[in-house]
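User: Predict structure, ligand adenosine-5'-triphosphate.
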Amino acid sequence: LLQLYAPLNFLGSIYSSIRTSLVDLEHMFGLLEETVEVDDPPNPSPIAARLRDAPPASVTFEDVRFGYRPDREILHGVSFSAPPGSFIAIVGPTGAGKSTISRLLFRFYDVSSGHVRVDGRDVRDYNQSDLRAAIGVVPQDTVLFNDTIGYNIAYGRLGATSDEIEHAARLAQIHDFIVSLPDGYETRVGERGLKLSGGEKQRVAIARTILKDPRLLILDEATSALDTHTEREIQAALRAVAAERTTVVIAHRLSTIVDADEILVLGDGRVQERGRHAELMSHNGLYAAMWAAQDGAQEETQDEADAAGGS
Ligand code: ATP
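Assistant: Predicted complex:
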């Protein structure tokens, strides 16, 4: 019986690891089985993709209501507007609906009422592929292909020349690192190649996005803390890609958004506060409380580091 049981047990563990990978994939795309297909319109409106061809995009949310399921509304009437070239930050506690806003901008889902507009038109007026070509995303976690680091950047715009790839890598502050690798841009990376650190992967994603040259940029900031040096390099790279583009940042670290044209504080699917950093600080509400909490947490981490260093 044992002889029979062992292979069954083995198969069972393979089955459960396949299931886990599938679930991970769904998580990666933030899509669960109830995803509703969205349709392209019969007469789609044109939309320019690249910043070199048209000015930065504008974004407007007009009283947007949305739920992944009909019985649970997540956004209860969200409105904001990002004029061409502006920098808008969305902050708020976990589960507030921040990522949902970026998924609606991409039109992974349709709103239940209200409008999501890009360049003044409802996103339902565009072909999905045209809309997505105009939007660049730097995600929290970048997936690298098992290919060369050069290809991983070129994926932002297949057909880019090697000069364009190198230019993007320089702006993203990753060129010097790449040329220090044994095979330079030809070095293989990913699961079966060289493993890159979180900060390096993020800079590859930034270079990809610079190459894509989208008119609208969504930055989904990583929650995990990077060391100060890496953090500074990433910030410089992000400034290069955000310059002149309309940028929506889903922010986890408040220090990165003090220059935002408008900060939206989202809570329970509603915009609870909005304004610039100084206005919100003097208002002494939720945003100011988030700063106080973050400063407190940083001091604690510093105390722990000091204690560890001193022992
Ligand atoms: P975090 O800071 O943790 O990323 P968030 O503010 O981005 O949080 P969202 O990911 O927008 O929050 O989620 C808002 C709510 O919608 C949560 O309650 C979440 O459980 C729910 N939700 C998110 N994605 C789905 C989905 N695909 N299907 C069903 N519910 C979902």
